[in-house]
Input
Amino acid sequence: MREFTDQEIARREKAKNIRNLEIDPFGERFERTDFAADIKEKYQDVDHDAFENMDDTATIAGRIMFIRKMGKASFMSIQDKTGKIQVYISINDIGEESYSLFKTADIGDIVGVHGKIMKTRTGEVTIKCLKYNHLVKALRPLPEKFHGLTDIEERYRRRYVDLIMNEESKKVAFMRPKIIRCIQNFLDNKGFTEVETPILTNLLSGAAARPFITHHNTQDIDMYLRIALELNLKRLLVGGMESVYEIGRVFRNEGMDPQHNPEFTMMEVYQAYSDLDGMMDLTEEMYQEIANKVCGKTTFNYLGHDIDLSGKWKRISMTDAIKEKTGIDFKAITSVDECIKLAEEHNIELEEHEKQYGHIINKFFEKYVEETLIEPTFLYGHPIEISPLTKKDPEDPRFTQRFELFISGHECANAYTELNDPIDQLERFEAQLKEKDLGNDEANDIDYDFVEALEYGMPPAGGIGYGIDRLIMLFTEQSSIRDVLLFPTMKERK
Output
């Protein structure tokens, strides 16, 4: 058992003394009627002298963040989920017994206060306490009151303390569900239906990623945690639901960095009778709706760049983007050997399974283009080798009808004109198996049931997947995915 600090010993002693007063040091139900931010907003423009003729009262509850004890009268600051408000507390107003109880309070304790609303000479909206309720004794002191948790790892590991001390963290935590609700309302109003699909799956499919593997005891089989939402949602298109979306956790057994967490939130959207252009239009409109309705602005500082989300966004093919940066026109090249030679000349290393036309193009894109796509850009025309679930470009079957949305040099969404040809789909799956044999551990399995579903007929459709965490990073202007996840995956504490 760890040793307690002097402060912790003193707080535990105070908790015992409170219990001796027949008061539960860890509280009971308390009926509050008001919140700090609402009170301050309502009375901020009322003159000091006007309060003399007012008897407005409020009942609040929250955590003590500041105390200045001064004999028979004191000040404290209480913080609830909306912010802080000052409280004036006097022995003349609450009596000697309650004031003695208050004198045992520490920063971090949770209390309830009923009182008269007033304003100090300095113009600060304040509650004059008429009734004081001890609710919870905090047995640990908060970190240094002005700086909070400066150790970044500890901020993420002890998010509960970070939310107490860090206004920015609390702002992001409350803004995230507002953004998600805005997305849901936007799609619902366009006739989409939100659905839920299984997290556990028997097959690795829907994306190029390494999975987490678990074991089902009853069936005695290994199963995957899903890496994508795609195939089940497209089964629903076959079934006639036509316009569907899902917001849910997916799991990829990969590294952690400011853009990646092993479990993250994805949204996939599928719309029958739409296509790639339809998904571009939907995405522009959705981002702009979030910007206007939730944030009240269209320009955001994201990863060191000022990003303007208004207007029409840039649209460019992958091969044209590479040509702009390198002068190489891969559209005009037909020889894989020539592509391999170009990769060698540009010091691009290739794994055995990457010695293919499409993989080499993608390598050039990642080296020369990706980080330069700052303003919102729809990059379309991906090679077929890296797009196993996408319709071919009818003008050049080496490429597909796919786009990725890039902002500040990072992918934010991935969209297709969906492949609904079951014969072509089976061939793509079989090609993925060959890549797996060559060492690509992110290649997909063959989902024969999905092929069977396509044989019943899936309508032409557009589909798109959004990284919700990266979307929220943009709208909350955060530079790390860990800042928009309440509990990111952490290394084990030594």
About this structure: The chain has 14 helices and 20 strands. The chain has two domains: 6-142, 165-313+375-483. The first strand starts at residue 57 and ends at 70.
